[in-house]
Amino acid sequence: MATADTKLGASDESSLQSDESVRGSEESRLRSEESRLGSEESRMRSTGPVGSWESELTSIQHSLKFVVKLKEEFVCPICKGVVLNPQQNSCGHIYCFHCLQGLLETSSPSSPVCPVDGAVITPAEVFQDNCCKREISSLEVFCTNSPACASVITLHHLQDHLRSCQYEQLQCTNPGCREVLQRRHLQKHLTNACPHRTEPCPHCRLPQQLSLLQDHVQSLCPDVEVDCPDSCSQKVPRHKLTEHREACPEVHVDCSYKKFGCSVQDKRGNVKLHEAAAVNHHMLLVLRSNTSLEQQVGVLQEEALLRQQQVQTDGFELAGLQKKISPLLQQSSQLEHFVSTAQRSLSRQEDVLSTVQLDIQQVSRGLPGLEELEQLRKSLDAVMQEVSAAEALREHLGTLEQNLQRHSGLLDLHAAQLSRNKQHLQELEATSYDGKLIWKIQDFRKRRDAEVKGQPPCLSSVPFHTGRCGYKMAVKVYLNGDGEGRGTHLSLYVVLMPGDFDALLPWPFRQTVSLSVLDQSGAGNHRSLGFRPDPASKSFQQPAAEPVSNVAVGFSCFIPLDKLETPQNAVYVKDDTLFVKAKVDMSGLEHL
Fold first, then answer.
1. Domain of 344, in residue numbers
2. Within a domain: residue 211?
3. Of all residues in the chain, what percent are helix, strand and coil, respectively (each to 5)?
4. 13 has pLDDT over 70
5. Would you say the pTM of this structure is higher than 0.90?
6. Is 352 inside a domain boundary?
7. Could you tell me the CATH number of the domain that includes residue 471?
8. Alpha carbons 464 and 583: distance in angstroms, whole number
9. Around 507, how many Cα atoms within 13 Å sit in the side-chain half-sphere?
10. Residue of 480 and 4 predicted with greater confidence
């Protein structure tokens, strides 16, 4: 009976395990189906990128005015604007690519539905409707600057038209000017009306910003003629003031006979008249000075005579000491003779002792039991020889260790020199002389994480030049930001470095510099910012001769870190690599 119960229980348990296995298989199948749907949705999101002209129209999508009323089928049911890069669902409705992508991202994998008829949107069944796309791209629209501009253009060419439309609103490109005006008025504004435009200085002919031109003329221009600071009647170029002061008649100077006692100090012209009129007085001062010098010479001669007498006295004392030393030297000679005699006696005693030792050895050979003693002595001699050999081996080993340490040191020096040569060769290979630099920064995330932890603070590129004999500079980047952009932005700077030809170049540095983070998607959506150097800044003066560069200048908030790693229409970080470009405007720069 107990056996039957046991078998029944085992059968029930097997049935339960079978049911659990079925349920587990069903759950696994559902998870597999969800994974398949998710991969299909991911595949749909990765296809159909928005074309460049369609992406540029996204911001004005809802303000476009069509010549013929837009058909209902060309209106996106999600954003209610004209469909850009149309994607068609199995229900037949079309949507903008970016609208459909946003709908899929905000919905769970099993819930996205068409906003028109509620049909389920399956990513695997969505496809790009190229036929509809061609129809939409050929629709005619009015220029966005209408009614001022009466042009009618196809949607596909609208952005090309806006790039040349004379009624397009543009901001002035002069640094510091924020005025916005139509393209047709821009050139006149740049050359004639803009208060921030650049004009040549009327004196030194160097280009200056108009708002700073007056300050430049009043305070900085080296060719402006200014009044002498010592109030003479001459006007002197600012850069010759120091040279003029050496001959200015109004400068206060001392009389040339000051070292002889004349205390006159007056304007240079008056001092010349004084020197011509007071010759007798000056001669008396010279005579007094000579008399004083003669008295000092007499005192020095007396001191020399006293010292000579002291030397004679010391010579007499030295002769007396030599007489006293002579007997002592004779006694020393006698003592040396006694020591020599004692040494000879000691040598004779050693010979006698050796003879006695030989006699003892002969006697010891005839005594019984001394053979063992002789064997022990031989064993002791052998051991002493082995000890001597071990000592010699240890000394040789020490010599080898010293040689090894010396060779290791030489090897380290050669390795360090090889590393420096290799780095110098890499810098020479990467150095450019056309004012451009494209810097490849690998291991972007690892370097940025290291910078977040505080090491290293920044990265520096290899130097580049504006010519074989031009300015030398480098790019510095803070991957985690610097200053105001720390932790939120990428910071980019340019720094002037001491070059071999700085003495031949014009200073301060005045060329426009642009910095860029390059788009690696092929769309060319590079992020670029530029600046024009401030001639008054120390950062653009000639660098010092020491190996210390000028202060770096650039943008602490060049690009937000979130837009750098996850941009909308570009790829700045690809395969953990970032490309940075620096370009110097070479216009107006003369090569040596």
1. 270-367
2. no
3. 50, 15, 35
4. no
5. no
6. yes
7. 2.60.210.10
8. 10
9. 18
10. 480
Say yes or no: 410 and 299 in one domain.
no
Q: Looking at residue 146, which CATH number applies to its domain?
A: 3.30.40.10
> Are 363 and 392 members of one domain?
no
Tokens of 307: 């010292």
Assigned token pair, 11: 């059968």
Q: Are 441 and 574 within one domain?
A: yes
Looking at residue 43, its pLDDT comes to 43
Look at residues 109, 134, 162 and tell me which one is the last residue of a structural domain.
162
Question: SS3 for 498?
Answer: coil
279-366 helix and 370-430 helix, angle to the nearest 10 degrees? 150
Q: What is the pLDDT of residues 272-284, one digit of tens each?
A: 888 888 888 888 8
Contact in structure between 128 and 83 (CB atoms under 8 Å): no
Spatial neighbors of 527 by CB under 8 A, at least 6 apart, are: 516, 517, 519, 558, 559, 570, 572
Query: Do 414 and 290 share a domain, yes or no?
Result: no
Q: Tell me which long-range contacts 184-193 makes (C-beta under 8 A, separation of at least 24).
A: none
* 187-230: pLDDT as tens digits: 888 888 888 887 788 888 888 777 777 788 778 888 887 878 77
Q: Shortest CA distance to 86 belongs to which of 78, 96, 77, 75?
A: 96
Q: What is the pLDDT of residue 465?
A: 94
- Asked whether residue 375 is assigned to any structural domain, the reply reads yes
Classify 531 as helix, strand or coil.
strand
One domain for residues 360 and 450: no
Place of tokens 């899929």: 104
Secondary structure element (H or E) that encloses residue 62, with its range: none
Please tell me whether residues 388 and 466 are part of one structural domain: no
Neighbours of 228 (CB within 10 A): 17
Closest residue by Cα to residue 265 from 281, 256, 254, 257: 254
Q: How many residues does the chain have?
A: 592
Task: Indicate the angle between helix axes 268-277 and 279-366, nearest 10 degrees.
Answer: 100
Identity at 311, one-letter amino acid code:
V
* Total count of domains within the chain: 4
The tens digit of pLDDT for each residue in 494-508 reads 999 998 899 999 999
Say yes or no: 559 and 439 in one domain: yes
Q: How far apart are CA 296 and CA 294, in angstroms?
A: 5
At 127, is the secondary structure helix, strand, or coil? strand
* Residues 414 and 302 occupy one common structural domain: no
Give me the helix-helix angle, 97-106 and 2-46, nearest 10°: 150
Both tokens of residue 246? 């050496």
pLDDT at 347: 77
Rounded CA-CA distance 261/234 in Å is: 33
Residue 295, in any domain of the structure:
yes
Q: How far is CA 270 from CA 250, 262, 454, in A?
A: 9, 14, 67
Query: Could you tell me the sign of the dihedral formed by the alpha carbons of 114, 117, 119, 125, in that order?
Result: negative
- What's the CA gap between 148 and 401, in Å, rounded? 92
Residue 515 φ/ψ, nearest 5 degrees: -120, 140
Tokens of 479: 């991957």
The 10s digit of each residue's pLDDT in 459-492 is 999 999 999 899 999 999 999 999 999 999 999 9
Cα distance between residue 517 and residue 582, in whole Å: 9
Name the band, by pLDDT with cuts 50, 70 and 90, for residue 567.
Answer: confident
Q: Which helix (H) or strand (E) covers residue 564, if one does?
A: helix 561-565
* φ and ψ of 486, to 5 deg: -60, 125
* Mean pLDDT to the nearest integer, 356-360: 73
Last residue of a domain, one of 107, 137, 162: 162
